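FAQ: What does the model actually see?

It sees only this:
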Amino acid sequence: MELSEQSVLLKIYIGEDDRADGHPLYEAIVLKAREHGLAGATVLRGPMGFGRSSRLHTAKILRLSEDLPVIIEIVDVATKIESFIEKVTQMTQSCLITVENVRVIRYGHRRPA
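And it is asked to produce this:
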């Protein structure tokens, strides 16, 4: 699969405890992205953060929080990302979704000379 140099980065900010049909929401979103044929997805777990409620979520020993911040990053062309955003909004109740233009330098393995 080729990926256009001018692509889009979709970021979805959720909580680690968020669920979809009994499974972690981040897992459901990544599997849906794969099913949708998107170029790639990565889940990043944050040690600390807060959102709209200003409630602090942290991994510090004295403030145990099991609902740590999670960011799902997905890269593909704008048309595919825009189409996928509709699916994400149907799967989520509370989240932050951002989109930014990115320049893809390399996608996949190095080609032999």
